[in-house]
Amino acid sequence: MNKTVYIGMTADIMHPGLIRIINEATKYGEVIIGLLTDKAIAEHKRLPYLTYDQRREVVENIKGVSRVVPQEEWSYVDNLKRLKPDYIIHGDDWKSGPLREIREQVFEVMNEQGGKVIEIPYTQGINSSGLDKEIKTIGTTPEVRLKSLRRLIEAKPIVRILEAHDGLCGLIIENLEVQKGDKREVFDGMWSSSLTDSTSKGKPDIEAVDLTTRLQDLNNILECTTKPIIFDGDTGGKIEHFVFTVRTLERHGISAVIIEDKVGLKKNSLFGTDAVQTQDTIEGFCDKIRAGKNARVTDDFMVIARIESLIAGKPVSDALERAYAYVGAGADGIMIHSKNKSGEDIREFCEAFRQKYTHVPIVVVPTTYDHVTEAELHSWGVNVVIYANHMLRAAYPAMTRVARAILENGRAQEVRDYCMPIKEILELIPGTK
Ligand code: SPV
Ligand code: MG
């Protein structure tokens, strides 16, 4: 019987280093490629530019590859146990860094099964992470960006979104990474918030900043980022206007619009019942959802319905009745909002909603119940968590502190430590020099 050789890969960007590994593998036997699924990758690396099916089609047609199988986990163990290859080949770059543990597991399983691990020298100068950086400088297309939110929702236990009101926020969200064990924690995308967009323009959050103005700022974010964007569409306005909003957002590569079921003069939800606000009728809001859905050009753009029942002091049962109706009208997801500090109402809603709809995405905004962890939210059935205003709330006190200290001291030396060094700001944006 022919010997078999296993290679795990993402194969997003094919490069000579990977071809060399495949060529080397053919010397030992029949080559099986374990192609990592989006799910396997999502918590560790950027989602591939190409979908799984596109990557499979490419790899299947590479000379020397006999078979492509999905690798559903970051760890090789399951596939190695199932396929029992005689060999596994990997570049020797996994000897250090976050892949070290993965390597140890592979050695353990292969030893148990009487197989062999072959490590080949890492191809200097060409590797996927380096290419990844270059791809970032190329950017993305509206279509790829738009689709990426749905892919992330499918691939990740919970999708983490942070508010961005300018290009600088966008850059932080785009680039910041924290390595936790073998997991890479990142923000998956951005929230274009009506509250912070309005506030940063010195306007109240009452739909006074029009779509065109909001898009101008959004455009700065689009220019320097590749991650998906969820747009806070407030009430969506008049149905006749909302259809144009959907088309405009979609054309810009925005992944989703969230509209809330309120009518009349909208005020920020966190005022709760302190502000007089009227919820739309179920029928009225369903018509708006339907109109938005009909206006879409692609199937990927999401119209997400936001329920304000709990904000308005109504019970969870009212929120659920609305959620079921909105999903019936075609909503691609439900955002449930509350200003309760415990988060209990949100949990109750999510758990009840999940009994009826196992897959319709749930979005939450834990501003007041900020003690609840993402892991807990996930266990309630939440798919998307939005940190809706934190970048602006962080910036304002920092700027005020500096401004105050200059006034107090009649010079700027005292604020030096509160500010980033000039050298750093000059080098922050590539291409400044
Ligand atoms: C926003 O960020 O503008 C929102 C969320 O709509 S909230 O402010 O909590 O209403
Ligand atoms: Mg808002």
Helix and strand topology:
Elements: E1 4-9, H1 16-26, E2 30-36, H2 38-42, H3 52-60, E3 65-71, H4 77-83, E4 87-91, H5 100-113, E5 116-120, H6 128-138, H7 142-155, E6 159-163, H8 167-175, E7 178-180, E8 183-185, E9 189-192, H9 194-199, H10 211-224, E10 229-232, H11 239-251, E11 256-260, E12 262-263, E13 278-279, H12 282-295, E14 302-307, H13 316-328, E15 333-336, H14 344-356, E16 362-364, H15 374-380, E17 384-387, H16 390-409, H17 422-428
Parallel strand pairs: 1-2, 1-4, 2-3, 4-5, 6-9, 6-17, 9-10, 10-11, 11-14, 14-15, 15-16, 16-17
Antiparallel strand pairs: 7-8, 12-13
Helix pairs in contact: 8-10, 11-12, 12-13, 13-14
The chain binds sulfopyruvate and magnesium ion.
Could you explain how this protein is built, in words?
With about 425 residues, this protein is of the alpha/beta class. The protein contains 17 helices and 17 strands. The chain has helices at about 15-25, 40, 50-60, 75-85, 100-115, 130-140, 140-155, 165-175, 195-200, 210-225, 240-250, 280-295, 315-330, 345-355, 375-380, 390-410, 420-430; strands spanning about 5-10, 30-35, 65-70, 85-90, 115-120, 160-165, 180, 185, 190, 230, 255-260, 260-265, 280, 300-305, 335, 360-365, 385. The longest helix is centred in the C-terminal third of the chain and has 20 residues, at about 390-410. The chain is globular, with a radius of gyration of 25 Å. It starts with a strand and ends in a 5-residue tail after the last helix. The mean pLDDT is about 95. Sulfopyruvate (SPV) binds near residues 232, 269, 270, 388 and 389.
